[in-house]
Design goal:
The chain is an alpha/beta fold and 159 residues long. Helix content is 40%, strand content 20%.
Length: 159
C-alpha cells in the first residue's frame, strides 16, 4: 500500500550525510513517500540574489532541477554526483518523490525550522562522530535536533 510520509534528510554532502541518505533510502523510504533533502549554507554565503530566502529558505527544488548544475549554482550549491546517483536510483526503485530545500544560517536551528515548516514525519541525519569534548566546545547538530525537533530523529553512525 502506498504511503505518503514526509522524510527529511540532513545533507551537507559529507560521507556521514551520504551514509544517512543511503540508509534512509534502503531502510525507510517506501512507495509514495517524499524525501526532503535539507541543506544549510552559512549566512555569509547568502548573496543578494538569495536574500529573499534568508528567513524561509528556498522554494522546494524538484530532483529534475537539483540535477542541473547551473540552477544549483544560482543558490551557491555545488552538485555532488554520488548524492545525485543515490537520489536518482532511490527515486526510481522505491517510487519516492525527491525535493530539496535550502536554508541559510545555523544548521542546528534551520534543521529544526525545516522539520516544523515542512511538517516532516521524521528526519534522518549522519553523525560526525565528535568526542565528548568536541561536542561541548563545538556543539552537536544532531544533539540539538534530537532535543528540539517535534518528530522522530534517526542518527546514522558512520561505519
Amino acid at each position: 500500500m502506498p504511503k505518503d510520509r514526509k522524510i527529511g534528510i540532513a545533507m551537507d554532502f559529507s560521507e556521514s550525510s551520504k551514509n544517512a541518505l543511503k540508509w534512509a533510502i534502503e531502510n525507510l523510504a517506501d512507495k509514495g513517500d517524499t524525501l526532503y533533502i535539507i541543506h544549510t549554507l552559512p549566512t555569509s554565503e547568502a548573496e543578494s540574489r538569495n536574500a529573499l530566502w534568508l528567513e524561509s529558505g528556498s522554494p522546494l527544488i524538484p530532483l529534475t532541477e537539483f540535477r542541473e548544475p547551473k540552477i544549483m549554482e544560482n543558490y551557491g550549491v555545488k552538485i555532488d554526483i554520488e548524492c545525485l546517483d543515490m537520489l536518482d536510483t532511490g527515486s526510481r526503485k522505491k517510487e519516492v518523490h525527491v525535493v530539496t530545500k535550502l536554508y541559510w544560517g545555523d544548521a542546528r536551528e534551520k534543521l529544526v525550522d525545516a522539520v516544523k515548516e515542512l511538517k516532516l514525519d521524521s528526519i534522518v541525519m549522519g553523525s560526525r562522530g565528535l568526542s565528548a569534548l568536541q561536542r561541548i566546545i563545538m556543539g552537536s547538530v544532531s544533539s540539538f535536533v534530537i532535543d528540539h525537533a517535534p518528530c522522530p530523529v534517526t542518527i546514522v553512525k558512520d561505519n
